[in-house]
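Quick one: structure tokens for this chain, please?
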Amino acid sequence: MSKNYQIRKKGYKLIVFEDCIESPREYYKDDNIGIMVCFHHRLELGDETQFKSLEDFNNWYKENKDKVKSILPLYLIDNEECNGNVSITTDKEDYRRPSELLGYIYCTSETLKDNWAYDEEDEEDILKDRLEDEVVEYDNWLQNIPPYYSFEITDSNKNMVHCQGVFADYGFAEMIDEMKERNERKEFNFLFDALLEKEKNNCL
């Protein structure tokens, strides 16, 4: 459950709020080497592809194995271990008990050809590691790990005077320090100090 923080001081109001960030499948689409195909009856996961079903993909794969440089299965986890969210893993033996085969992430010679970080001498285990990294990054986003926040400052007339984001919450105090450091309007840093003090007192 998201939590917003706010404080008023000297005629200004600071609100620190949870911000939804773009999926890494979209944000890093020019850098990803993998194509993530997922099939679920109610959830839209992975990348947008031409495949309509797992059977459709399997038929394509049988005919194009020679073009696929690396491939990993994707399993869905949708239980109490995920804190209300779904999770994706490549490990069928994951302790959180995957419920079903969701799809695959794979890379082809064609997708690797124009990738800036690809070396033709890369072994398959290197490619698998990169695909695994993409899955972990996407899975963290699905589970909101870490949550990301932005802030806005308004005056006594409720006019916005400043806003900025996006800040990862690996710890509230650390996040507020980063906001102060990156804040382009240093004259408002007293608001961050006041909010931090308020939250510290709330925890006592």
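The helical segments are 24-27, 54-64, 109-113, 124-142, 172-182, 189-202.
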